[in-house]
Amino acid sequence: MRVAVVDLGTNSTRLLVADVDDGRVGEVARRTEITRLGEGVDERRKLLPLPVARVRNVLAEYRRELEGLGAERVLAIGTSAIRDAENGEAFLGEIEWSYGFVTRLLSGGEEAELTYRGVADGRELPAQTLVLDIGGGSTELILAGSRTSLDIGSVRLTERFLRSDPPTRDELEACAQAAREALPALAPTSAIGVAGTVTTLAALELGEYDPERVHGHKIARQAVDALLDRLASLPLARRRELPGLEPERAPVIVGGAVIVREVLARYGLEAIEASERDLLHGAALEAAALPEPVEGDAPPGAYTCC
After folding, report:
1. pLDDT score recorded for residue 306
2. What is the pTM of this model?
């Protein structure tokens, strides 16, 4: 079955069109747009009109693309920003009615579980492998059946601590301390990182973003330290120009890199492997199990959210 998944993330809105066959996910098309849906949510606890408008513009393009590719089921998933916003569920109702997507608001645990399923698709993961998913609003840690969702993410930490351009030493230390204090006691022997922060660090080390080269690339702990030092020393305008760094991800990459550094230091890990298979691939398996779509009434909250 050909399915589509839309990830309504805190920092980016992503699309995966895939063929699901016997529990395996075959990628057909994949797109990412930085939309910053979670902008201001940490402070105001609401999705704001401008970020919502950015997301809706992207969704109109995504719907045309997935329909053109023949997707039979479409699942749109909401994560940290939508969980935290008072009008988050109303926003999902509007998306469901406006675009015809089935929507699902994931808990932190559900997000972690689907991420693990996506990473494990097509490979066996050793029992003590930590799967690290750094989002804009939350970070998911999955290890040996234990799934933990933390309220730290690249956007959240940036808005809370990294207000100078470039960030000051005191701001960076406060950001790192917040990350350290949030990390639970775990004992992994290796780590795989998914989503934009880790894949961007891999691309920066490689000098370009090539998904085939990024997938499986291992970034040494010393390289993470060096990349963070470099990123944090540059003003935003200079970060936007770096090869391998999506310009719209530049405002929050320092906060994300701080989390990666603190995770490796906390658990004594010497490297982290980047994976292009993630939450989208796990959600594609869920999309394949959806019933055939039918026409219906507008869900509660449609057109009333923002």
Report:
1. 56
2. 0.83
